[in-house]
Amino acid sequence: MAKTLEKARKQIAKKRNGAIDALHERSRDSKRLHRAQIRDDRLDKLAVTRRKKDKPLLARAAFFQEFLRENGDKALELDAIQAKITEFVHQYDEEYDEIKKARRAGRPASTREDLLRMKVTALEKEYRDGFYLPDLTTEANALVLSRFEGSWPYLANLAWVKISAAGNVKPSSFPPQGL
């Protein structure tokens, strides 16, 4: 992804008439190549971290896009949206119960069980306070979401809302703050 090393290597090779393999280990050129390599590694790590952080919102948008497509890409009522939010919140319940039943009595919970429990409780808390999702109540936004192809920049074109368990709907911005 990052091209700093390639650019530096190309410039040094050009300066040395194509012989880049005969560098002294403490020369300016070798230090320049080393700095470029470190920068590329750092940028790659940042990109991986950013993709990992963005993955839950992409999955959430894809989940509600699938629900929208099942209903013919039409705007939905609040009751149907809340039912689907409840399904999204409790999607890990079966796996959690399975792992919990498989554990012997008196044994501590496995890491996977703890992660699933934390994920479900976090989603339940978010739903109580206001579940962050694309606005499915308007025709225009439903049409835009139905064309979602799975990329992060496309999500900025959508209108987002927070829907609480009590039925309150508040407009929100993208990307979410503190989610």
Write a structural description.
The mean pLDDT is about 90. The protein starts with a helix and ends in a 7-residue tail after the last strand. The longest helix is centred in the N-terminal third of the chain and has 43 residues, at about 30-70. The chain is flat, with a radius of gyration of 24 Å. It contains 6 helices and 3 strands; from the N terminus they run αααααβαββ. It is mainly α. A hairpin with a 5-residue loop joins β2 (about 160-165) and β3 (about 170). It has helices at about 5-15, 30-70, 80-90, 95-100, 110-130, 140-145; strands spanning about 130-135, 160-165, 170. It has a single domain (about 5-170), classed as de novo design (two linked rop proteins) (Up-down Bundle). α1 (about 5-15) runs antiparallel to α2 (about 30-70) and α4 packs antiparallel against α5. The chain has a 3-stranded antiparallel beta sheet with strand order 1-2-3. InterPro entries: Tma16, Tma16_sf. This is Translation machinery-associated protein 16. Belongs to the TMA16 family.
Task: Name some characteristics of this structure.
de novo design (two linked rop proteins), three-stranded antiparallel β-sheet, 6 helices, single chain, flat, 7% strand, 179 residues, mainly alpha
Number of domains: 1
What is the SS-derived class? mainly alpha
List the secondary-structure elements in sequence, H or E. Answer: HHHHHEHEE
Average pLDDT? 88
